[in-house]
């Protein structure tokens, strides 16, 4: 009884104590600093004049830094945004794994060949921009750990494949892997239930096929496959009922033919959907995919998702683009989040 009374007393603190606690929280938030050292031609970092644990946003972009000291990142305990883009970095410190509150990391326009495995400890990370580096691979298990990642931008690198764990990034909304050397995409994409934008354009002669599971990306709005070596689109794409933009220019397409493509997105979708029903693929495999698609709600026998014809009415005002529009390219540009380094933390 005495123990219960203690608990009861704890949950009904006097108003004065509650106000004091709220005031302390407010003061703690105010003490967090924004530090902008961008564009200062720094070859090395000056000795900080303040406690690194008080920094919430640190901008070191557009300098000449060749390394980030291990001791520096290890002490950035409250940093949420870290921008080291446009430097001369060849690697990142292992202590980056200490940044448990990090939400946005920009390492674009450097010479980084690999990301340290410890980056998997940054479990609060929501945006990772590693465009314009020399990455040949990503950490194998990265998808199992960065469960809060919403945007992954790795364009303009030397990636030959994405790790299979990528398919476990269930919060991911944008995946930009254009301008690499991708030979294939992970087979099991169906877990990317929140993915809205997938850009794997300009992998040129390397990328020849796409996994059938691409038809299970329930939230997909924009799919850019332009300038690859794809001859046949998976018929499952016809079941992407929310798709509003499909870019396929620069591929040696046979199925669907360019004559079909030129008639617009709704015609392409109807063509692929029809192909799904009359496909010659092995019955066992076809039945397996059909079961998956019905289960996920992307496919039913009456039409392209939902009531008969509903999908096509919705698609009448949509079109297919051979190349993504300037607006779309701008959205995926590495400059989108860090276009003005001096103002990016304002």
TrEMBL record:
Q: Record's SMART domains? A: LRR_BAC (SM00364), LRR_TYP (SM00369)
Q: Does the keyword Repeat apply?
A: yes
- Source organism's superkingdom? Eukaryota
Which keywords accompany this UniProt record?
Leucine-rich repeat, Repeat
Cellular component terms (Gene Ontology): cytoplasm
Q: Does the keyword Disulfide bond apply?
A: no
Q: Where is the composition biased (Basic residues)?
A: 1-23
**What are the boundaries of the region Disordered?**
1-25
Q: Which PROSITE patterns match?
A: LRR
Instruction: Tell me any Pfam family this protein matches.
Output: LRR_8
- The name this protein carries in UniProt is Uncharacterized protein
């Amino acid at each position: 009884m005495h123990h219960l009374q203690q608990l009861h007393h704890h949950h009904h603190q006097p108003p004065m104590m509650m106000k004091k606690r709220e005031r302390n929280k407010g003061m703690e938030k105010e003490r967090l600093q924004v530090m902008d050292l961008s564009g200062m031609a720094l070859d090395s970092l000056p000795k900080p004049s303040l406690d690194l644990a008080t920094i919430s946003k640190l901008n070191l972009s557009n300098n000449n830094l060749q390394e980030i000291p291990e001791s520096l990142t290890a002490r950035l305990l409250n940093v949420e945004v870290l921008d080291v883009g446009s430097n001369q970095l060849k690697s990142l410190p292992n202590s980056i794994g200490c940044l448990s509150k990090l939400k946005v990391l920009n390492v674009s326009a450097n010479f980084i060949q690999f990301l340290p495995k410890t980056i998997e400890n940054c479990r609060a990370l929501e945006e990772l921009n590693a465009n314009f580096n020399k990455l040949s691979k990503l950490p194998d298990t990265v998808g199992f750990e960065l469960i809060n990642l919403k945007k992954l931008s790795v364009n303009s690198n030397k990636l030959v494949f994405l790790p299979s764990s990528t398919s476990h990034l269930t919060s991911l909304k944008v995946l930009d892997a254009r301008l690499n050397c991708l030979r294939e995409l992970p087979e099991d994409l169906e877990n990317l239930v929140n993915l809205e934008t997938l850009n794997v354009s300009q992998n040129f002669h390397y990328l020849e096929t796409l996994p059938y599971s691409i038809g299970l990306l329930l939230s997909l709005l924009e799919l850019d496959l332009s300038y690859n070596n794809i001859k046949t689109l998976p018929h499952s794409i016809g079941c992407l009922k929310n798709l509003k933009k499909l870019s396929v220019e620069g591929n040696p397409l046979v199925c669907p033919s360019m004559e079909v493509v030129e008639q617009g997105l709704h015609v392409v979708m109807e063509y692929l959907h029809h192909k799904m029903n009359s496909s010659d693929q092995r019955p066992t495999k076809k039945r397996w995919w059909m079961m998956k698609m019905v289960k996920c709600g992307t496919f039913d026998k009456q039409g392209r998702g939902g009531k008969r014809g509903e999908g096509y009415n919705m698609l009448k005002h949509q079109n297919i683009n051979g190349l993504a529009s300037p607006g779309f390219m701008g959205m995926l540009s590495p400059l989108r989040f860090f276009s003005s380094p001096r103002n990016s933390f304002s």
